[in-house]
Design goal:
4 helices
Length: 145
């Protein structure tokens, strides 16, 4: 009887360890492919949105749902293109302003720190000899359309 209960215990223990290992493996696998799963989710979500807009479009036009999907995709690309054309230059300008402000703030901090002995030591240890190297303000000019 003692032998049977030990064998039963070992079987249950191995089964439990196997189940826990299986779920741990599944968790690890889903962690590793999280980007792929998110991309799949985005694809399904995009398909649902496009299909819903196409059904709405085909309800008010004589086009079939398939042609309506094509029209919706073309319109979406057009709207995104126009939006990008209008927004990207503004983002580039704001990025240039940010770089300028960061350069000025960096210089002000360095000026304040250089007034103290410990500040000069800190500057020598932390910053390169040429000072902080932030990009020039016109670096982002190639983003302008």
């Amino acid at each position: 009887m003692n032998q049977q209960s030990t064998q039963k215990y070992v079987k249950l223990l191995l089964l439990t360890v196997g189940i826990i290992g299986f779920f741990f493996s599944l968790l690890l696998l889903s962690w590793k492919i999280a980007d792929v799963l998110l991309l799949l989710f985005l694809g399904v979500l995009l398909a649902i949105v496009l299909r819903t807009l196409a059904k709405l479009f085909s309800r008010y036009t004589p086009l079939s749902t398939r042609w309506s999907v094509i029209v919706v995709i073309v319109l979406a690309i057009f709207v995104l293109g126009i939006g990008g054309r209008l927004i990207v230059p503004e983002i580039a300008n704001q990025t240039n302003e940010l770089v300028e402000q960061l350069n000025q703030a960096s210089q002000r901090i360095e000026d304040i720190l250089s007034q103290y002995n410990w500040g000069e030591d800190f500057i020598e240890q932390v910053l390169p000899q040429d000072g902080p190297q932030l990009p020039e303000t016109n670096t982002l000019q190639h983003f302008r359309l």
